Amino acid sequence: SGLTPLEAARGRAFDLLAQHGECGIVDVVSPGLPNGSDTGHLALLGYDPFKYYTGRGPLEALGAGVELKPGDVAFRCNFATVDDDGVIVDRRAGRISTDEARVLAEALQGIKIRGLDGVEIEFIPTVEHRGVLVMRGRGLSDKVSDVDPHKTGTPLHPPRPLDKSAKARKTAKALMAYLEKARQVLSNHPLNKERREKGLNPANALLTRGAGHLPKLEPFSERYGLKAAVIAGGALYKGVCKAAGFDVINVEGATGTVNTNLNGKMEAALRALDSYDFVLVHVKGTDSASHDKNPVTKVRVIKNISEAFQRVVDRAFNEGTYVVVTADHSTPVEIGEHRGDPVPVVIYGHDVRRDNIEVFDEIACARGGLGRIRGIDIMPILCNYLGKMPLYGE
């Protein structure tokens, strides 16, 4: 049809905000730079990722409830499918279910490797194929390369030290030993044998990326004077917000998948607004559909989000709540990967300047009053309306 999924979906709640608010487009991190959800959320919350980002791993770990200590190294991890030669067939192992991932994770807990010089390694599953790998011990470094090449048809990349330090060499060696053992355990697991018999991709390897230590962020409440909470299904989004001092509100059925409990998340957000100044609600389903190159599902998810979000819009119109709708990155459905395209944004509030935009989509928002801004501009713009921005100069 030549339309983007957002244009095709025509979400009524989003269009209402566009008609009564101010629209624009956002270079989430930097113009033309494809960014991850980690750096994207940092930017949208007003933390320059070029200054504060220490890797995806520790943020995922925080969101998964892992208590990281100084010196721990955390990695984002995927269950994946590889062939006998170690070539990646599927980076997400057919989007293995969360329950199946937990079964495999339990088997990984039994891995014991000699000669790691006191290094302990733990795998924690999160949502579907996603997980966190945490390394603990003395003399570890986060200067270790990604095992995940971020594409299929490519061999696994062995972890390599990114500098000449003994710590980096030790970390890479220990990680390699663990991943090799994990591949053996996973390949022989009954669950994967069952998946093969059903014609499903086995989850027979782990892909690590985003090694990092715990980041140090100025608390959001001190930075902006706002008491904040987050509602999300995925560990990463909870982790970014926890690092900034947010409270996490867990919602039953918030799975971080295309079938998440949208109504429950919106109801929780409305309740939270009675106790918090700022509530971030994250929905993952649109991105998952894009990575799967499934425009039909993406349109359906957008429509479902809009329908559930309508109650939030109604409250905003009736009670003067400020609302911002945007995305943390662009994932074109025909490509299936992140790109550096700008994303649409709308800001609504009783005193927000209205422009003449009637619909919320990538094309219309480009003509809006906000123009083309950066992700780190959103919080100052919002805080200006909230009366939270100090005077600069005399």
Automatic annotation (TrEMBL):
Metalloenzyme domain residues: 4-383
GO BP annotations listed: glycolytic process
MF terms (GO), sorted A to Z: metal ion binding; phosphoglycerate mutase activity
Keyword presence, Isomerase: yes
Keywords, sorted A to Z: Glycolysis, Isomerase
CDD domains the record matches: iPGM_like (cd16011)
Ranges where the record places region Disordered: 144-165
Pathway field: Carbohydrate degradation; glycolysis; pyruvate from D-glyceraldehyde 3-phosphate: step 3/5
EC number(s) recorded for this UniProt protein: 5.4.2.12
Protein role: Catalyzes the interconversion of 2-phosphoglycerate and 3-phosphoglycerate.
Protein name: phosphoglycerate mutase (2,3-diphosphoglycerate-independent)
